[in-house]
Amino acid sequence: MNRMRIFALSIALLRGMTSLVHVRAGETATLDHWKESVRARFPGVAQLSTSELASWLADTNRVPPLLLDVRTKPEFALSHLPAAHQVDPGTGAAAVRARVPTNRPIVVYCSVGWRSSELATRLAKAGITNVFNLEGSIFAWANEHRPLEAAEGQPVTRVHPYNSTFGRLLRPEVRGKP
Q1: Residue 126, Cα to own-chain centre: how many angstroms?
Q2: Euclidean distance between CA atoms 137 and 117, whole angstroms
Q3: Model's pTM, two decimal places?
Q4: CA 165 remoteness from chain centre
Q5: Rounded-to-integer distance, Cα 72 and Cα 69, Å
Q6: Which helix (H) or strand (E) holds 107?
Q7: Which domains, from first to last, does the chain contain?
Q8: Residues 72-124 pLDDT 10s
Q9: What would you measure as the largest C-alpha separation in the chain, in angstroms?
């Protein structure tokens, strides 16, 4: 990974972490707090709720969306939404366009929605407009006990916690080990 990409990812992470500071002393940031932060930081990104995605995936009369997991390979390896494709968080829109079909709707997700909303923004700037961010991302999906899988389609119930701070946003029964 080149230095500029590492720098950009570091800045994005710091922006996300500063949202934790805006929580009142003694309070813990909740997943709802992160959903609000993502909506405020990325107002141009269409948000899709977990229930809307679940209904969409269950509707055989609708073209299913392409699911892009915008987390690291170790996060993806522990669990992901069924049929999702892993995309490195720093991937540019051109690389995504070259790797995946963009002629169908795309739903991006990460841990809480920050990295995926950044990718959705890059895709929109590149002219790929039928993109949605899964609101609350995989943390919300897992907390609702929706289907997850690991390698080779094996059903799993745990999610990579990203780190100990963000891991607190996951219910204990779905919190994996990093």
Answers
A1: 19
A2: 10
A3: 0.84
A4: 17
A5: 9
A6: strand 106-109
A7: 3-174 (3.40.250.10)
A8: 999 999 999 999 999 999 999 999 988 888 789 999 999 999 999 999 999 99
A9: 49
